[in-house]
Amino acid sequence: MSNADHVKKDHIEISNKVNHMKNIETFKKDIKKLSYEESICELETILKNVQDENISLDKIQINYIKGHLLLKHCEELLEFVEQQINEINPEMLNIK
């Protein structure tokens, strides 16, 4: 491989990494807006997409990244609700 080919290959790899980072940031912003139920629905859609035998390698990678971010978002939402539940004072729940 010539030096020019190495430079071109390196440029393509850097460009791909920059595009992936932009995609990840976009995914994060979009996912933060989703409710727990919407996130689960998106995860189910990704699961169906990945099971398709004709899916491209690029789409597999995108689905993996999105799925990971959605799963993390769901975990954060569940942790938040768990904290809220733990902060409920049991005496406040007594009905007189």
How large is the count of helical segments?
A: 3
Main sheet characteristics: none
Low-confidence spans: none
Distance between the terminal alpha carbons, to the nearest Å? 82 Å
CA radius of gyration is: 21 Å
The counted number of beta strands is 0
Element pattern in H and E: HHH
Helix content: over 70%
Please give the oligomerization state of what you see: single chain
Structure report:
- The protein is mainly α.
- The protein has one domain.
- It has 3 helices and no strands.
- Helix 1 (3-32) packs parallel to helix 3 and helix 2 runs antiparallel to helix 3 (57-87).
- The radius of gyration is 21 Å and the shape is elongated.
- 4% of the residues are buried.
Question: What is the structure about, briefly put?
Answer:
Helices cover 79% and strands 0% of the residues. It is mostly helical and 96 residues long. The protein has one domain (3-93).
